[in-house]
Design a protein that fits this description.
- Residues 122-136 have a biased composition (Polar residues).
- InterPro entries: Cyt_P450_sf.
- One of its GO terms (molecular function) is heme binding.
- The structure is a single chain.
- 39% of the residues lie in helices and 7% in strands.
- The protein is mainly alpha-helical.
- The protein folds into two domains: 1-69, no CATH class; 76-136, no CATH class.
- The longest helix has 12 residues, at 106-117.
C-alpha cells in the first residue's frame, strides 16, 4: 500500500467475496458502498485481486498521486480469463497504449487532444447535434 493512503484506513475485506460485477451489486451499489465507507473505507478484495476505495476523499488523493498509483493495470480483467483468452495472450497480443492506461506526462498530452476534440469549440457539429431536440 502506498504512503499516500493512511495505513490505518486499509483493512481486511468487509466481504471477502465482494464482486463489483455481481448482479445484486450492479442493481444497487449504494448500500454496499455505505457499508464499506463505514466499516472499511479501503480494503483488499481477494476475489477480484484489487483494492477497493470507497471514500471520495481517498479516491481524489489516489487520482492526484500518479507517482504512487499507476494507471498501467486499469484494463486488467477482474474475472478469470477463459482458457481461449489465456492462450491468445500467450501467443502475444499487441498492447496499444490508451489515455486510460497512461500515466503523466503521456496522460496529460493525450487527454488534452481528446478534450479539445470533444469540446463545443473543437467540434461545433457535435454541439449542434446535441442542441437539437431528438425526434423518433
Amino acid at each position: 500500500m502506498s504512503h499516500s493512503v493512511k495505513q490505518r484506513d486499509a483493512k481486511h475485506p468487509v466481504d471477502p467475496d465482494f464482486d463489483p460485477l455481481d448482479e445484486s451489486f450492479i442493481a444497487n451499489p449504494y448500500p454496499h458502498f455505505a457499508r464499506f465507507r463505514r466499516e472499511a473505507p479501503i480494503f483488499y478484495a481477494p476475489k477480484i485481486g484489487f483494492w477497493v476505495v470507497s471514500r471520495y476523499e481517498d479516491i481524489l488523493k489516489i487520482v492526484k498521486d500518479s507517482d504512487a498509483y499507476s494507471n498501467a493495470r486499469v484494463q486488467e480483467p477482474m474475472q478469470p480469463l477463459t482458457p481461449e483468452a489465456t492462450q491468445k495472450l500467450k501467443e502475444g497480443v499487441r498492447v496499444v497504449p490508451t489515455t486510460s492506461t497512461a500515466d503523466p506526462p503521456n496522460h496529460r498530452r493525450t487527454r488534452a487532444y481528446a478534450s479539445r476534440a470533444f469540446s463545443a469549440k473543437g467540434s461545433p457539429s457535435l454541439s449542434r447535434s446535441y442542441a437539437r431536440p431528438r425526434t423518433t
